[in-house]
## 1
Amino acid sequence: MKGKLLGAAATLLVLGAAIYGLNTWEHIQDQRQEAVCKAAREHLNSLETQARALASGLSVEAYAEAEKAEAGQLVMALDTARNEAEVDAVIDKHAAAIEAQISAEDAEVQSRGEQPFLGQELKKQRIPTDVKQEFKRAEKAVADTCG
């Protein structure tokens, strides 16, 4: 009788320890997965900034400063808006400025035509292939680790 009771208690103890260990392991794996996902997203964001900087012809630092200044101006304009109509007007004005900038860049690219030097053709993007490939790898890493 004592032996059966001790055997049952030992079995319950081992089973409880195994369940606790499994739950702890799953919790650690979830935390690790979240950390890896966060790191992959941060890397993707830094590559996006780098690609935008390369496309604009600025250094990454100069582009980040310009982006921060533009965002600051937009936030300040939104903060000074007193009602929804003024907010909509600020947003429309900002969207129009972005569209005008895109149109101006497209017009500049189209007006250049071909570069006569050594028969080179104008490149529409200034983003090197290795950065594009790294960007694709980073997107895949985010999809794999976060999805």
Note: The helical segments are 2-56, 60-80, 84-112, 129-146.
## 2
Amino acid sequence: MQGGRSQQTMPEDRTGWHQIDAGPHLEVLFHPNRRPGGREPDEIVRPSIVVAVAGKREQALRFDPFSMGAHYHIRPGLAEQIPLQVAEGHLDATMAFFEKPLRFRGLLALAEEDDVASHLRDEELKNAANQIRALSAAARKGAAA
């Protein structure tokens, strides 16, 4: 561990977070616009997706496809954030990890969760992406109303 940093855990306060069904091996939560406490309101939309291995509290992955500064983390809190290469929409770039399961498995392996990565089913990850897209669209529609 570097400089006393510790791996971040799944949110205890689940207000605004949506449970995503990604199969029995993962816990996935999605927040359409997470605003860290104490931050002044601004125009940045901050969706966030956190992923943990079922039964563990520590986050294995976190995706922050913000409208500005989109990035993701492998073992959040222990490693630096990685810029998210955005060609299309920010959320679309993140969903590519779920919709191309080999990429997602690779990230889990980098988070030292190889065993779980090998048990994931493609259709469960693709279904998780569909759920997140639907929740995101509903949130945008609600914000525009």
Note: The chain has a mean pLDDT of 89.
## 3
Amino acid sequence: MKSQVNRTANPGQSSSDRLEQPMTKKEVTLKTQIIKTMLAGLICAAASVLITPLGASAAAYVRSDSVNSVVYEGSDYHIYELYLPLGQGWNYGDLTAQTGAPLADRGREAYYAGQPAAYIRSDEVNSVVYRGSNKHIYELYLPLGAPSWKYGDLTAQTGAPLAKWGPVAYRRSDRVNAVVYVGADNHIYELYLPFGAPGWKYGDLTAQTGAPLAGSHALPAAYVRSDKVNAVVYVGADNHIYELYLPLGQGWKYGDLTAQTGAPLAGYEAPAAYVRSDQVNSVVYVDKNNYRIYELYLPLGQGWKYGDLTAKTGAPTADGKLSGYVRSDGVNSVVYKGSQYIAEVYLVPGQGWKYADLTTGWSVPIIPYSAPDGYRRSDNVNSVPYCGDDNHIHELYLPLGAKTWQIGDLSLQTSVTGCHPVIH
């Protein structure tokens, strides 16, 4: 079963994809409740009911076999995957049940949940890492061409300290696979697997660099910069944005990006980091006092600078962590959750930053209750999955060359419920 709606360019005008007349707020609320009741009946008839714990975000990526994948933690603390093979429809799998892996961590806030992260290792193994209820970091992995998923306990294999926040994962420029997390001592730790090495190792990046301790909710972000420098950014206890960075052939170092740029202090939401289509390195975050969106950016061959994307675009303030990625059309995109919408601040090459509201104005309002995660699918469709207040995981998507965003209900298409409506 498939649910799909087209994003209207001018809500309220006549169209086959939108209402003949604008609805009043009362009518919108009534219609929404009716639809939710109908959907609830459909879901109750499904074989499985999977709800993510308290607004925890999903993680999205393209596997090494070109399958598009969205992973999340269910209310039974299993890790689930919604996946889309090329030319087919969405399916789902229970990776915990398939592998016999331990349950993910639990808690009353998204920060305390197992927080799965997904990436492709340098050996083309598809990897989903998460924090277990025993604070170990586990890896669910699928080698390219393998028939089934497996799992490993990276904490037990390495003897690394227990995890407090995270993990996040990425493939370094030296082909080392890296999983980064915050320990109970607020140090930043790295579990790493060099290409071709027989086993995982760990390092204490805080101790190696002398960097300040991470803050109380300091989920880090990790990426490879356009100059091939490996970088981990996080919010410190003083609300500064710090960068742990590893130039090729050297050791780990650290820098205080807030002090270098004079940028406003960061809030507690995790920063996002990515390389823009113009090869500018970008770290975006929400500020501490006003919930505005700021960008710390590093053009090639220059020093770090900062910009106020909220002021540049007139975009509304953020209510959750950000996600940055490059769309298939070369547009740089930062997506985030507002109070009742998903917004995009975007930069077309050669132009200035702009803003768009991706959800307000649908004929069927779907209020987000978790932070979105933007990525480019293997079919060049730009995708922003998120958790809605109807207990479903929805996908906002923009095919290459299309002018308007569309929305699909991945939970309804796979006959499972994806999330639970709690503020992130």
Note: Confidence is low (pLDDT under 50) at residues 1-55, 420-424.
